[in-house]
């Protein structure tokens, strides 16, 4: 949507219009100001301060341990760094499930303390009341269905969702999220044809994270997409760069230059 629709600040109405016009929405995660500045300048529509930060920034092996306070600090740095992108803060595990009031309190913290433009939470039918409470308070909500990493132990690991009989549950989840007032919904790790049918059944845009080309937009964890994480990435990740390798090489050059005293040169000294 970026190039075809020049806008000052992306708003939820722009996502709705993109779907209506058949323009694809772009999304990336962001966790700090320097990366958010680059993504914003490049024209990404939606930046998600994802709880994936638990894995890719803080070094945990799941998203479960990250806290609201940790994500508020990261969200603040991302909102400060952006001028155009719509910034969504991810509500972490344990910060919204208990009650609608708890969910609203967490969402309000992200809006007031971090300057987020909206929040995301995981779950369809089971989270409809939380989504409704938050949207009724005037806060945009991005839903998240299909594979929901905060429930990975309940789902039996990183397993593709919505296959066979499970398609009906996925559709019910999508419709519940829409009916509760979400402006868009992330569909994670679902077969292309299933995500396509859900996309056509909804008025709100679907954002794919491993949901195939028929969704209304695509999102990736930035460290996966640009090769800043090492190790195996999911099948749906396309690596657009190999930053970890480039950085390692550059650090090696720095070490060599210090050892052979070619750094600092006279020009780099006072
Ligand atoms: O935390 C995250 O990065 C996410 C995306 C994968 C949607 O939830």
Automatic annotation (TrEMBL):
At the highest ranks, the source species' classification is: Bacteria, Bacillati, Actinomycetota, Actinomycetes, Micrococcales
Organism of origin = Gulosibacter sediminis
Which branch of life, at top level? Bacteria
Q: How is the cofactor bound?
A: Binds 1 Mg(2+) ion per subunit.
Q: What is its EC number?
A: 2.1.2.11
Q: GO molecular function of the protein, one example?
A: 3-methyl-2-oxobutanoate hydroxymethyltransferase activity
By its UniProt entry, which PANTHER family does this protein fall under? 3-METHYL-2-OXOBUTANOATE HYDROXYMETHYLTRANSFERASE
| Name of the protein | 3-methyl-2-oxobutanoate hydroxymethyltransferase
What reaction is this protein's catalytic activity? (6R)-5,10-methylene-5,6,7,8-tetrahydrofolate + 3-methyl-2-oxobutanoate + H2O = 2-dehydropantoate + (6S)-5,6,7,8-tetrahydrofolate
User: What cofactor requirement does the entry state?
Assistant: Mg(2+)
């Amino acid at each position: 949507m970026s190039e075809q629709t020049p806008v000052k600040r992306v708003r939820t109405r722009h996502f709705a219009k993109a779907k209506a016009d058949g323009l694809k929405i772009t999304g990336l995660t962001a966790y700090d100001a320097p990366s958010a500045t680059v993504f914003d300048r490049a024209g990404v529509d939606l930046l998600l301060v994802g709880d994936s930060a638990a894995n890719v920034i803080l070094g945990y092996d799941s998203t479960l341990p990250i806290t609201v306070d940790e994500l508020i600090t990261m969200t603040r740095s991302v909102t400060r760094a952006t001028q155009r992108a719509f910034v969504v803060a991810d509500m972490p595990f344990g910060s919204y499930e208990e009650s609608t009031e708890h969910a609203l309190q967490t969402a309000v913290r992200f809006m007031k303390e971090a300057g987020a433009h909206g929040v995301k939470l995981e779950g369809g039918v089971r989270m409809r009341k939380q989504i409704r409470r938050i949207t009724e308070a005037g806060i945009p909500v991005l839903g998240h269905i299909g594979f929901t990493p905060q429930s990975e132990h309940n789902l039996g690991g990183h397993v593709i969702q919505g296959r066979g009989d499970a398609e009906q549950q996925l559709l019910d989840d999508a419709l519940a999220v829409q009916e509760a007032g979400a402006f868009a919904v992330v569909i994670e790790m679902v077969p292309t044809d299933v995500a396509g049918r859900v996309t056509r059944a909804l008025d709100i845009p679907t954002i794919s994270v491993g949901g195939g080309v028929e969704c209304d937009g695509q999102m990736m964890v930035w460290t996966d997409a640009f090769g800043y994480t090492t190790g195996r990435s999911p099948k749906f990740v396309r690596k657009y760069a190999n930053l970890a390798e480039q950085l390692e090489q550059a650090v090696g050059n720095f070490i060599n230059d210090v050892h052979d005293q070619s750094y600092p040169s006279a020009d780099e000294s006072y």
